[in-house]
Write a structure and sequence with these properties.
Blueprint: E1 10-17, E2 22-27, E3 31-34, H1 42-45, H2 56-83, H3 88-98
Parallel strand pairs: 1-3
Antiparallel strand pairs: 1-2
């Protein structure tokens, strides 16, 4: 390994959760703060608790709404394109069929 390019390693880095639980791990940071840990996570505790960090559900719902409006706009544009011929050949065939 090259000397001087690696970050400092802390073998006893302190991890602090918002629930108050603390434990030590090896890390390149001296202290790590987390929002949820094994002591308070619903999977490990068995409690029915809704875990939404940083508004992920709202982000997903916004993304779905934007996709829906995008698809509506795209569909209306395709309908407009269907009404207007794109090439001279299409225009001539349309005129011939109308006669």
């Amino acid at each position: 390994m090259k000397v001087g390019i690696h970050p400092k390693y802390y073998p006893n880095a302190k991890v602090v959760c918002t629930c108050g639980n603390t434990f030590t791990v090896g890390s390149t940071l001296s202290e790590i703060r987390v929002e949820i840990c094994s002591r308070c996570h619903p999977f490990f505790t068995g409690e029915m608790k809704f875990v939404d960090t940083q508004g992920r559900v709202e982000k997903f719902q916004d993304k779905q709404a934007r996709a829906k409006t995008y698809l509506k706009k795209k569909a209306s544009q395709q309908k407009k394109e269907e009404r207007h011929p794109q090439t001279l050949k299409e225009m001539l065939t349309n005129v011939k069929s109308q006669l």
